[in-house]
């Protein structure tokens, strides 16, 4: 009996040590109900692969090879979260809008470095040339057959981006612009106002509907963010 209790005590201590080691590495032991990819990633102490959607569909025209998120947009809006890509993470929300029922929307990002934005019909993606440095681009792609427009709601943003660069933002004041097309020409239009960074994070919030801000069916909407 005594030897059995000692063996059980030793096993418990060993288990506790193993759990502590995992915790120190930011790893939680997997349960039987977790997906296989999570279990394999944890057993190898490697983070999950970045989720991307760099193909057509769901993207069209210029394809962004950075992080991606798929969301179900409702008339009341939806939130999104893109995994870390090139030290940058983006989270945020889309507010009240004209969606009827629900619509599937993909969001993706890129830095326009290292070929992470493909050409479209031999044309390179038009860079956003603004004060300071444009350090990240984002695209929203509506997969439904309806045109989606934001609706203003007092005290609530129609769009919000929370952008963090683990390395460092290229400035303390940031701006955002929307890429629109007119008669075959693409033009960047800046959103009103500037946004102060806090450390490595900047929050971009819009309460009014910028000109040209709507997402057509199977039509991407591009954003560029600069800091100085």
Describe the structure.
By secondary structure, the chain is mainly beta. Helices cover 14% and strands 35% of the residues. A hairpin with a 2-residue loop joins strand 9 and strand 10. The chain is globular and about 40 Å long.
Rg is: 22 Å
Strand content: 35-45%
Give the proportion of residues in helices: 10-25%
> Distance N terminus to C terminus?
72 Å
What does the average pLDDT come to? Answer: 83
The tally of beta strands, per DSSP, is 11
Order of helices and strands: HHEEEEEEEEEEE
Comma- or semicolon-separated keywords:
single chain; 228 residues; mainly beta; 11-stranded antiparallel beta sheet; 2 helices; 11 strands; globular
